[in-house]
Specification:
The protein is of the alpha/beta class. It contains 11 helices and 25 strands.
Length: 373
Amino acid sequence: MTDLVFIGGGHSHAIALKLWGKKPLLGINITLISNVKNTPYSGMLPAYLAGYYSYQESHINLEKLCKFAKINLIIDEVINIDCQNKKIMCKSGGKINFDLLSIDIGSNPKISNIEGANLYGIPAKPVPFLLEKWQEIIKNSKENNLENLILTFIGGGAGGVELAINTHKRLTKILSPEKLTINLIHKGNRILGNHNEWVSYKLTDILINTNINIYLNSTVKTIKKEEVILTSGKQIISNYHFLVTEATAPLWLKNSSIMTDKNGFIFIKNTLQSINYDFIFATGDIANMINYPHPKAGVFAVKQGLPLYENICNLLNHKSLKCHYPQKYYLNLIGISDETAVASWGYFSWESPLLWYFKKYLDTAFMKQFTEL
């Protein structure tokens, strides 16, 4: 038997495992190691926070998926990989052997440069911790007659902007608008700096009209229990501090022998293999395609699901592997809480309620493949 191990229940792995369940190879023992039983779909997460979707509608049930694909599921957290001896070390103390390995564990916000972030910050990833704190906020808002609730989002990319707008939507259903304050802090001179200017200015107008405070050209130095301090010395009072900053990889991966970039992301070839270990694949945010770098966006992880499955099968069958080339431009649909969305694709951009329904159609269609196995 060949031992094939998947680490992480990311979008690429979910698709590959579904395909494996439909067309498996004989003589392969497969294990999925995940720290959660239900993995969130990133495209639906902001809308889930806004109350448009339920937990079940926005999460992939890995237990159900693994049962369908007839593979082993281990709920644990990986803390190291011994590539020479092909062993995976887990937080529980367990050690798992592998012959072939695939890694799709996403990324985490970079917080090492912010004092107090580990104690008082709420990283947008891992998502289970974010949702735990979000439920705490909802509960406090409902049960305690709050006079003032202040949320601060650190990071003005698409993720930070979308979370700020959608949390505002949900909380204003519980609290009167004058009792809620939301801040967005961004180090650049405009939000969504990697999108075209129209999208940036459009979302800026939406934030302003939603009464969300924007702090541009601002870098956070320190996070305390009830305030955020900028490098300029400005102090911003805040009850909850969300980190949606630059992506980075877990420390254990940076310290492994797998070749990574300066942020710890695994360098991969177009075949989705590690550049220094052909028996290791990596996809999604945790991977950095060395010849074709691209943004950390869910659409790329989704597109890698099929070629990952095909190349794992090709390697097991001793066939030539296929090259995967990420698209130069990708459609980014940013959901806005009043049932409208903004589309960004290269230099093209548009806002319309039709886009919200189009996004809803795409997201529900993606999730349907895992609920109707």
